[in-house]
Specification:
- This protein is an alpha/beta fold.
- The chain has helices at 46-52, 78-91, 104-115, 143-151, 160-171, 176-183, 199-210, 216-223, 239-244, 249-264, 281-284, 286-296, and strands at residues 5-11, 14-21, 27-32, 55-60, 97-102, 120-126, 156-157, 186-189, 192-195, 227-232, 269-274.
- It folds into two domains: 5-153 and 198-299, Alpha/Beta hydrolase fold, catalytic domain (Rossmann fold, 3-Layer(aba) Sandwich); 155-196, no CATH class.
- It has an eight-stranded mixed β-sheet, with helices on both faces.
- The longest helix is centred in the C-terminal third of the chain and has 16 residues, at 249-264.
- The two termini are 28 Å apart.
Amino acid sequence: MTAARTHTVSVDGAPIVLREWGDESALPVVHWPGLGTYTGEYLFELGPLLAEHGVRVIALDPPGIGASPRLPLERYRADELGRLLIGGVGALELTDAVLMGASWGAVVACEAAALAPERCRGLVLLDGGYFDHSRVRGWQLPLDEHVRRAGEEEWRFKDREALLSALEEHFGTLSPGLAAYWLSTVEERDGELVDTADTEVMGAGLWGLVQPRPPIAARLEAAAVPLLLLVADAGWPSEAEAQELGVSRADMEGWRNDGLDAFRALSRSTVIELAGVPHDMIAVAAPRVAELVSQWLPQVR
């Protein structure tokens, strides 16, 4: 499950822990995970699969997640994190790299590519980057309110079996590797298993994600970066989730389709929808993701 190599680089004074798979002389793909208890180790299956296709996979522990220390909460704006990602490419002494991100990480990767296209050889987006989160009224909150709400959403389970049961229900199936990963993200506290995620970082990450920014599709077109977007056959949000956010499900679907249409119209984009694959495609469809990414990568080698 562990990465072949783990080391730390300093980016603008921030220590960032990296997990790596593959030959160090191979094409570098630098990955930023989704928002949650997702460290670089979440590529425990996808990383080795991509390495088999001649790729050097470098996955970050984002600031405040896993082994990387957190930043001041005001620095979790997506554009600020994009600068950090580009800084990470430089700290690795790479001229450029393919940037890959899942969900939150896809937004960060898009911001990085728009900021410094000369450092981005290509973009791989795993069901993210195309949705304008600032349109969701229920997320238009001050930073301290996002932090407060995140603190109320802490995962808690009475025991190991309850956690594994919840995971199996969520994913539909639970591989030994996936079970081991999520068990490593909890700790015993007051007789329960509790998520080790820093809830202040979770709140700041969502706050940073929903801050208004110039439309990303136009900026990526100007950057002329080749792009692969793999889209989940999502069922998100449910009607109940949409109501909690103060919008209709039809509105959410419309905004999602607007974003997808804008990305499909990019002159250097490849958009592939994966039927039956949920948002967390790294967890449940790593072989398919690895196959599609490896088929696309010759465009940027």
